[in-house]
Every structure is written in C-alpha cells, then in structure tokens.
C-alpha cells in the first residue's frame, strides 16, 4: 500500500512488534559523506570518569601540591640552611616556656621499688608499692633503706 510517499511494510521483521515506515528514495535528502569537525577536542573535564581516571587525577593533584609546598619551603631557606625570616632564639617556645593551667586529673602514684603504678601505701614506712609481693619486700627493708627510697622520691623521710 502506498500513501503520500510512505510505504507500509505489512510484515515486520522477526522479533519486532511494531510496524516501520519506509521512505522512498525520491523523498529522502541526498546523502552527503560525514565530515568530521576539525575544531572538536575531547572534554577532559567531563563529569563521568572511570575510577582509574579519578584516582590518577587525585594522585597528580596531591603530587603537585606536595611539590608546591616543597618549593615554598626551599624559597624560605637561605644558602646556609637557615630560615630567611627566622625568629630570635628567645622567642621560640620551649617545653618550659609554654604556659598551661594545672591538670585537673589526679596525680599518678608509682611504686617506689618497681616504678609501676602503685595504688597501695605501706603505713609503717610511707613507701608506695605495686602488689603484695613488693609489700613482702618492703616489710623486710631496714629503716635506712626505706628512708633512702623516700628521699629518692623527694619526700621528707619520716620512718616510724
């Protein structure tokens, strides 16, 4: 059947449930060969990238950032290795110059014999001890030895 330049294909190909329109060669435009756009460049910043491309780009960015920081540090250095804009020695903070409020945590108590944490104190000598085996050793100490242990800790040794 022919209607206004369109031919109805009455039998569709196998596997196709729809009727297709066929155009006559007289109605179609003359075909021209496809000419590639010479100004076309692939967009490297496209949003959909595979994982390998994303990871490679991230590694490259991190490498460039490290290189930039390294160059900045080198520019700040003098020839002899000293900083060009170094601060005087007395202005640098040290362990003893940094001011901080006292700790709110309780002081830790250590065993006078072993140096381990010593939660117990001998009432007779005032020595701190870790466990019962150390307590047995402390009971056998002389008064002068107990006095030496207490003075090592910095306590005024008063032995009863």
Automatic annotation (TrEMBL):
- Stored Pfam families: YL1_C
Residue ranges under compositional bias (Basic and acidic residues)? 57-86
> Region Disordered: start and end of each range?
13-39, 57-100
Q: Which UniProt keyword terms apply here?
A: Nucleus, Transcription, Transcription regulation
- Keyword Nuclease on entry: no
**Nucleus as UniProt keyword:** yes
* Vps72/YL1 C-terminal domain ranges (all copies): 109-138
Q: Where in the cell is it found?
A: Nucleus
Q: Which domain of life is it from?
A: Eukaryota
Give one GO biological process term. chromatin remodeling
**One GO term describing the cellular component:** Ino80 complex
Broad class of the protein's primary localization: nucleus
* Protein name, entry field: Vps72/YL1 C-terminal domain-containing protein
